[in-house]
Amino acid sequence: MARVTVEDCVEKVPNRFELVMIAAQRSREMSSGAEPRVPRDNDKNPVVALREIAEDKVSPAELYEALIQGLQKHVEVDEPEEDGFDAMAANPEFAAIAGQVGEQMVAGSGMSVEEIDEEDEEGAPRQTGEHPTVNYGDAEETNAND
Question: Where are the domains of the chain?
């Protein structure tokens, strides 16, 4: 019976590979709970899917689109969701709190942040812009021991 069904379906979908793919998609839909559109007649889902395609009960184009959607790993979203961090960073109150927390973390770790003038240390590499220099308390102790 399946051979006759495949021959009937080739008239609707000329490419046998595409026929197998869309029939498998319809078969998976029926396994997931979709109702068959032709009498089951004690046939399994793949045969029922082929019979539905042969009798034009389902659209091969719709099955093809459903197949593609099922295989996509990345689905494009029309509107990107706003990241919670971006929303908080835009809030000036949050930025002030984050600055205070950062200063507390630096103070609690034994590090210090200092601005160094270019004229203060001639042997040090020149700082460009307003980048702070970070001094580690541990590094000074190890250098003194050497």
Answer: 2-71, 84-116+131-145
